[in-house]
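Lecture notes, structural biology module. Today: joint structure prediction for complexes of two components.
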Amino acid sequence: MPNRASVIIPPMKVSELGEFGLIDLIRSSTTQDEISGRTPRHEVLIGIGDDAAAWQGDSQIQLATTDTLVQDIHFDLDVISWEELGWKAMAVNLSDIAAMGGIPKYALLSLALPGGLDAADISRFVNGMTHVAREFGVAIVGGNVAASPNVVITMTIIGCAKGKAVLKRSTACPGEHIAITGYLGLSAAGLEMLKGKTISDAEMGDILRRAHLQPRPKVREGQILIEQGVRTAIDVSDGLIADLDHICESSKVSARIRMEQVPMHPVITANFPNYQELALCGGEDYELLFTADTATVARAKQALDCPVTVIGDMTEATLPARVTVLDSKGNTVPYRRGGWEHFRNGVPGPKFS
Amino acid sequence: MPNRASVIIPPMKVSELGEFGLIDLIRSSTTQDEISGRTPRHEVLIGIGDDAAAWQGDSQIQLATTDTLVQDIHFDLDVISWEELGWKAMAVNLSDIAAMGGIPKYALLSLALPGGLDAADISRFVNGMTHVAREFGVAIVGGNVAASPNVVITMTIIGCAKGKAVLKRSTACPGEHIAITGYLGLSAAGLEMLKGKTISDAEMGDILRRAHLQPRPKVREGQILIEQGVRTAIDVSDGLIADLDHICESSKVSARIRMEQVPMHPVITANFPNYQELALCGGEDYELLFTADTATVARAKQALDCPVTVIGDMTEATLPARVTVLDSKGNTVPYRRGGWEHFRNGVPGPKFS
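The predicted structure, tokenised, for the full assembly:
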């Protein structure tokens, strides 16, 4: 064994270390080699710590991302249909390519399943997955199946950059605006409804259900952001504050959001007293959160078909809070830190690529 | 929804359909689109049904493969150390790139874990994984972590072909020899030892333990096979007969093995009365099984540093058995069909790419 410095870990459980601590552990263990030059880094442009990994191919930047959905952690088979599950598994992975402004091309599916499931349900799952793949021009080229006590779905998507650049988390600058596509909080509100909250209007109920179970990855939107000169973006999977915090951390800056500018669908404000929390911390909206100067945001707004709302500004790094939320009077709005985080609240969380 | 023909599945459980039936189901559901031209196939060269997927990149053939290890299905934490588990997770995936004769380059890790695990164990896991990655020049560029009731590890490896060709399962021809690198049955024998069988010689015990827990992927060997003109290969993950059967099925040919030529390590023949079964059906040896004409096999033998043994010949397709095993008198040796197969015997099985 080579004489290499080991990462020192005080005795603690994974749940105490937390999801992001665990990602840091993996990152530091794997990048030590890069620092010491022992592992060829090939042409890695973005390693652990963004929505997708990126490396320089022969002529194009290549992208790859992987995400796992675990039964009873990420989904409840009493709530989601198999067709919707197939859709969502593909969509959440495509969203990571969208967050890079990339073109998704190939998918690998790893399916761990109990033997007692109905084969017809797996067929429904594949139909849902294929439906989204077809829409976004993705070919499902391989994968594997294995027996497991619970359902665990891992998708990997491989793609490439649209041009010579990708959207990163690490390039935000103080003074830039913070903008978001679409509405926030719909997915988390949909989950509340699916868990029992009554929504009397059927059409509103349908909007909420689809927001949570059949999210639409903003693939084309990500590509348009790149074309219009945006450099910094992330998809909202963990929640607005948590994902904006990832940008702040990567870019070494802070952020200030104005609460009254956060776009919320009327179905949320009308039916959910906790609408602020849903919009700030809900997660799984799969909208694109990006930062850019005034002119670039204006161009992006013009070029995109969906609503684009400026919700705040990037600032110089401040401590302790990297993300500050202000109300209309300029007072700080308190929020629960964290958004979704695995091992702490056991709900969907971010990936380390 | 488009009006498309659905795959008809009679009411049955996944366990009745079996692993390969399930793979066929996924393949037929996803390739219908390709046939009908609805999904761009980009430049897919090899889709579902080989060791890795392959597509034409700008100048090189690109490869990708994914594999999942499920706690208590693929590994037992009472038997394997965390460092060995990290090694094995990386090695079994590299073996699929080896089976294509390719160059592995980038890895993505998806780790689903219970929160109660020790963080130090995850560090050991990453060290084991990184050790193998370093040896084979692979950069770990991303992945994700998630909470889960049991440990589920999914690795994805992305690489490229060594030259203009890859080793396939579908190109074997009648009259070609069947050859194998190394020895067969060591891994399954190692598992028997780890489950309680006494092996008095410590050195022998160590060979068996490493064969099962720290397999060496034959990456360089696969590249040499391509360089020497071999076109057809598979890695022995399911077992000699099961994997040879995959070649027969893909190539629409049959195979005849001579039992006395199957290479078995002395530790197996001396200590395991069931050595024939271990060698024929044991699986997880991660040796390369290939077919080629006499001159090509001779060149490969010359170029490789490891033992290479001719164990039989490919024949015209016969029914019912595609793989026949003969003893030294030319009599048929009966064997248990199947090798490892998920949902039937719940042990490691093949991937669908």
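Point to remember: Chain A is about 35% helix and 20% strand.
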